[in-house]
Amino acid sequence: MKQPALGGGQYDEAGNECKIGRWIELSDKFKATCQVRQYGEYINGKKVGRWDSYWHYEKLYKHIGGGLYDESGNECKIGRWIEITEEFNSTSQVSYHGDYKCGKKVGRWDIWYQKNYHDLKYEKIGGGSYDEVGNGCKIGKWTEVIHDFSDFSQVTYLGEYKNGKKIGLWEIQYEAKKIGSGSYDEQGDMIKIGKWIELHDPFTDSFQIIYEGEFKRGQKVGTWIKKERYENHLDFKEVDVIKYAD
């Protein structure tokens, strides 16, 4: 028996490869654990109106995001949106909730997370504000998640933005507990300065390594200590010493 199509839609008959009408599109990283589809409409090859994202996993099929594009054909996001991360899957259900104005993020944006796909309850784990001018510029206090945040790597960064640049002290948390920190310069050049405790990338339940040392004008200097701990252990133990030029 022929399998049903995962998605699709129509192109114009003029041979311009221009998408028209209703479409079902697959996410860029569509796979077994990330079966996300976007539903919406094209006019003259441009997304318009309401677009929604749905996730299919095992017997679960639910709405996980979406929002509005302007009707003028500029593919300009407007109003309230829920966006999912590029890494969205069964163990990394992270979404961003906030407003667009003329295609730019404005005002408060919140980060939500669901640990278990069988549990329909989401938890707010972070967020912050963009300027109201429409420059898409982060301002004030933020709590951000690591790029591959998941059930097994719940790392967040807490600190301040000024004109879209990190400044001052930033704290690193793992499962809501402080595990590292360090400072950026106050001039807005995002240069790391002074003492830092950084996390190895990746940092997961079963692979927990940190590095303690000093930055000078954005460069690591002097002695850095590599430490490791095993899952369910509270303390890190020194495993290596790394030397950098002063």
From TrEMBL:
Natural source organism: Paramecium pentaurelia
Protein name: MORN repeat protein
